[in-house]
Amino acid sequence: MKIWPRSLLARALPVLLIGLVAAQGGGVYLHMIDRGDLARLGQARDVAARVMAVYRAVVMSAPDGGRVALLRAIELPPGTRAALLEAPPAEMLPAPLSLTRLIQADLTLSSVPYHLRPHDVVVLGSLYDRLVEVGLALPDHGWLAVTVRVPAPELWHSPLDLGLFLGLTALAAVLFLIVVRRLIAPITALTAAAEALGRDVDAPPLPEAGPREIAAAAAAFNRMAGRIRRFVQDRTFLLTAIGHDLRTPITRLKLRAEFLEDDEMRRKILADLDEMEAMLAATLMFGRDAAASEQATTLDLVALIRTVLDEAADAAPDVAEHLTYAGPERLLLAARPLALKRALANLIANAVKYGDGAAVRLRPPEGRMAAGGMAVIEIEDGGPGVAEADIERIFQPFQRLEASRNRETGGSGLGLPIARNILRAHGGDVTLTNRPSGGLRATVSLPV
Ligand SMILES: Nc1ncnc2c1ncn2[C@@H]1O[C@H](COP(=O)(O)OP(=O)(O)OP(=O)(O)O)[C@@H](O)[C@H]1O
Ligand SMILES: [Mg+2]
Q1: Does residue 401 belong to any structural domain of this protein?
Q2: I need a surface site. Which of 9, 64, 196, 335 has the fewest CB within 10 A?
Q3: For the domain that residue 87 is a member of, what is the CATH number?
Q4: 212-216, 342-346, 407-411: which has the minimum mean pLDDT?
Q5: Which atom, in ligand 1's list, is nearest to the CA of 401?
Q6: Residue 442 CB less than 6 A away from ligand 1
Q7: Whose CA is nearest to atom 7 of ligand 1?
Q8: In the predicted model, is pLDDT for residue 370 greater than 60?
Q9: From the CB of 380, is ligand 1 less than 6 Å away?
Q10: Are residues 125 and 209 in the same domain?
Q11: How far apart are the CA of 355 and the centre of ligand 2, in A?
Q12: Quick one: pLDDT at residue 284?
């Protein structure tokens, strides 16, 4: 089941909102209970006061016979009825003890001369049923029953209260949203920085600002990036230093080889030394590539591909007709022009060298997300292809396949690793596949 959303914001926010609503709901519930209690206390007082008013009028002003007439004559407040009975009223259930006590206490406090006070009081009904009946035993004989209809307690002072409450809840929710987003923002920044570092060790450092923990994380990340940068620089420097220093002994060896008697042997040794020199030259170039920090600019990929094809045709006029391009007439993207050109030139050179031609196809990014998508360049040749087992191996430096080693097409085995290095530094990649119809296909992806 995948009901749990993936984004941190989408996960944190519902939890916080549920918590907020629960806390607010609890608060409102307590408030309503409190207000209800208070309101009912007031209502009990009110009932007692009304009852006592009627009682006082009945017991003090009228003699026995006149009471009925009096009850008819006095104007009772709305929701109040009064009747004279022979026995205590009993149509309703007895009231809860708390209410009975409250009313009895209030009655005792009222200003009726002692000898006229009711000598018995029964309370029926309840505030919850909104109907309370109080029976009072008259001092001489019979009962006075007063029924009071109680309005429902008002739990909110006014609609404004509810509005204010909802407004505050919404405000808290918005604050949550802002805080959670602000907390998540550095994670997104860190992701982007890690991504950028993977493409380019010289990527700009993260700003070490903001709250302490986030600044500390950014500082740690920057230190790590610095160490990686130094590590890469040291390795590159070591590589070029070795490449450079080996050139002198090779030159010496070449000079010494000239004195060899055996012609055949001398020719072979010199050929080997030449090969070593070429490898060293390529190594030095590789080191320079890694060290060079070319600026990225917006360039037209199609123009770049066409230039590379033209140059390949100049270098190998006999395969010029097999160098083709298919795709859009223009595709702008941000890249380091010289590096990208070298990457494509290496791939196209391989297609020419080992496959006698290169058919280049460019596909712009697909779908609506054209901006964040990948352009795909396919470079196909009609050569022998590469055994599946060797496909990843030839991306390693100095890896050449035996078949090609014997050909006059000398190379150092750095073309593919350099191309992949450059493309990955651009956020893209290159993969090789054998075409079903024979030949190799290099698939280059490049973010646009
Ligand atoms: N299109 C291809 N068809 C067949 N084999 C290929 C193809 N491209 C590369 N290879 C094989 O992969 C090996 C490595 O290629 P890579 O470009 O890295 O080095 P290289 O071409 O030998 O030398 P360099 O490019 O440095 O001059 C090649 O020697 C070749 O055997
Ligand atoms: Mg090559």
Answers
A1: yes
A2: 64
A3: 3.30.450
A4: 407-411
A5: 31
A6: no
A7: 350
A8: no
A9: no
A10: no
A11: 11
A12: 80
How many angstroms separate the alpha carbon of residue 413 from the centre of ligand 1? 6
Domain count for the chain: 3
Note whether 289 and 422 are within 8 A (CB).
yes
Residue 407 has pLDDT above 70, yes or no: no
Q: Is residue 173 part of a domain?
A: no
157 lies in a domain? no
User: Probe ligand 1: pick from 344, 380, 394, 430, max atoms within 8 Å of CB?
Assistant: 394
pLDDT value of residue 406: 46
Query: What is the per-residue pLDDT for 11?
Result: 84
**In a shared domain, residues 27 and 57:** yes
94: DSSP letter: B
Q: Which domain holds residue 240?
A: 192-293
pLDDT value at 344 more than 90? yes
Whether residue 147 has its Cβ less than 6 Å from ligand 1: no
Q: Which single residue is written with the structure tokens 């993977």? A: 198
Confidence of residue 224 (pLDDT cuts 50, 70, 90): very high
CB 154 within 8 A of CB 39: yes
User: Ligand 1 within 6 A of 394 CB?
Assistant: yes
199 and 318, same structural domain? no
Query: Domain end: 94, 125, 149, which one?
Result: 149
Paired strand residues for 334: 298
Q: Is the CB of 413 under 6 A from ligand 1?
A: yes
Q: What is the DSSP letter of 305?
A: H
Give me the mean pLDDT over the 355-360 stretch: 92
**What residue owns the CA closest to ligand 1's atom 13?**
400
Percent of the chain at pLDDT exceeding 70: 92
What are the DSSP E strand ranges found in 249-344?
A: 297-300, 323-326, 332-335
**How confident is the model at residue 156, as a pLDDT?**
67
Ligand 1 centroid to Cα of residue 303, in Å, is: 25
Question: 285 φ, ψ to 5°?
Answer: -65, -40
Cβ of 287 less than 6 Å from ligand 1: no
